[in-house]
Structure formats: structure tokens, C-alpha cells
């Protein structure tokens, strides 16, 4: 093979490699441009270098207003410390998953899960953002409902406990815990009767959990002046999944 032929072959190999590299770069650019997931590139200081079109769909703005903006200027003030800790971790070469509330151009905040991967040799961070705002609202609604339920339960003068089919307490209000003489947390998972109740009351509990208690409740022996009522706890399909126990002061002489 002549020297000229060798050079020609080498040139063909180089051109083929460049063509493969260009195809990969085009595929990467197309993915970045067309993925519905929000994606961005940052420098290690947290300044936005590049964002994909999905960013503008979800967060608004324009390339002129977004590019080169510091992420700390976009996140909720309460999330800035978490962002700073995340950037410090990224600077050591480790990926991070972090929840950050980011401001839309209209002033609203979106709850975004950031998955970020640093490439230290390029001084760049590549991140995808998943919008979990609806999930966060649902979770906050459930927390509010539970807080309301707890407030209502603790305001009742009668003691209430929810018992599963194995006889274990899975929920209780403050009045029931006071009657049982235990903190609410100490009662969870326990089976009535409790260690400090009389043998007569143990038998009463066994009858209640066996469905043998009268409809108007059972007067607990021992002179404590309380009546134990129970009702079956049913699932939406009407299958019994436990009991609700209610302890009230006995009004009968």
C-alpha cells in the first residue's frame, strides 16, 4: 500500500468516526429538545447554562431571562439551604436527588424533584426535573385531613380505639389512652386487655372482640364507672376489618 493510499484510508476512518460522533450528538440534542421531562445544564455554582423547551412549558420565561440565571434566585427561600447542600455534594462528584420548589414566572411555585449528575471534567451538572406538584398537594391534603381527624378525636370526652381483626390497637384518641393509663404511642400494636386491668375486664374484652357484647355496651366491672361499647369496622365492600371500641362514663346508678 502506497503512502498516499494509507493517508486516504486514515482519512476515511476519521471521517466515519466524525460522522458517528455527529449522529450521536444530533440524537442527544433531539432527546434534550423533545423529551417531555424538564431538563437543564448548570455550572457547578448553580447557574443555568442551558434549559430544554419543557422548561419554558412548565416554568415559563425565555432564553434571555432564564439562561445564566442563578438557581438560588428561582427556588423558594426556604429551600435555598437544601440547594446549597446539594451543590456542595455535586462539587465532590456525587449525584443528588433533591426536592426544590421553583418559581414559575407567574409567581407560583412548582414542587420539582431534581435528579442531578455532575461531570467535573466539564464543570457541568446535568439535571432532569420531575413535576410532583399535584402529588405534593395530595399529600398535604391527606396530612390536613389526618390533623383534622386527630383534633376531632382528641376533643371527644369518650375514649375511642380502632382494633384490627387480630385484636391489635391501630389507632386511639387521647381519652382512651388516659383511661388505659398509657401514652397513645405505647398503645399502638398492643392487644387489650392491658396488663393492669382485672381478670373480669379481661374476660369482658374477650367477649367484646368475639362479638358477644350487647348493643348498649358492657359495664366494665371493678367500680371504674365506665361502659365499653363496640361496633364492627367494615371495609367499603362491607367485610369486617376490625372493631371500634368506645369507653364512656356510665350514667346508670
CATH architecture of the largest domain: 2-Layer Sandwich
Percent strand: 25-35%
The fold-level CATH name of the largest domain is Beta-Lactamase
Report how far the terminal alpha carbons are from each other.
Answer: 118 Å
What are the secondary-structure elements, in order, as H or E?
A: HEEHHHEEEHEEHHHEEE
Kindly list the characteristics that best describe this protein.
single chain, 253 residues, alpha+beta, Beta-Lactamase, five-stranded antiparallel β-sheet, 8 helices, 40% helix, elongated
Map the helices and strands.
Blueprint: H1 3-34, E1 38-43, E2 48-51, H2 53-59, H3 63-66, H4 80-91, E3 96-103, E4 109-119, E5 124-131, H5 133-155, E6 159-164, E7 169-172, H6 174-180, H7 184-187, H8 199-209, E8 218-219, E9 226-234, E10 240-249
Antiparallel strand pairs: 1-2, 1-5, 3-4, 4-5, 6-7, 6-10, 8-9, 9-10
Q: Any overview of this molecule?
A:
The chain has 253 residues and is an alpha+beta fold. It has two domains: 27-136, Beta-Lactamase; 150-249, Beta-Lactamase, CATH 3.30.450.20. 40% of the residues lie in helices and 27% in strands. It is built from eight helices and ten strands. The strands form two sheets. Strands 2-1-5-4-3 form a five-stranded antiparallel β-sheet. A five-stranded antiparallel β-sheet has the order 7-6-10-9-8. It is elongated and about 105 Å long. The model has no long low-confidence stretch (mean pLDDT 75).
